[in-house]
Amino acid sequence: MSSLPVQFAGVTVVTKANIYFDGNVVSHTVLFADASKKTLGLIRPGSYYFGTAAAERMEIVAGECAVTQQDSKESKTYGAGTYFDVPANSGFTIAVSSGLCEYICSFLP
Hints:
Layout: E1 12-13, E2 18-20, E3 25-31, E4 37-43, E5 46-52, E6 56-62, E7 64-69, E8 75-79, E9 83-86, E10 90-96, E11 101-107
Antiparallel strand pairs: 1-3, 2-3, 3-4, 4-11, 5-10, 6-9, 6-11, 7-8, 7-10
């Protein structure tokens, strides 16, 4: 379990949304003073594949999702307060069966 932040102070938020899969996945980019960035988003029910250039940590804020990492046949379920890491130059399929899944995506060094 991770200790999820409830807010970020002293950041810049990019107002233009990142919209994927006909609006079923929507996020906003948050820029930090140390040049790191995160995205905060929502995933509607469905199954979606994302490729990664950089390594990522996906923290689940609310809801639930099932994740299958690229090159794996095993799906794992994640709920609020949990996270999963995705290697650089990889990808994952994330599936939400009902409701909304809220997340924080951190781009790892």
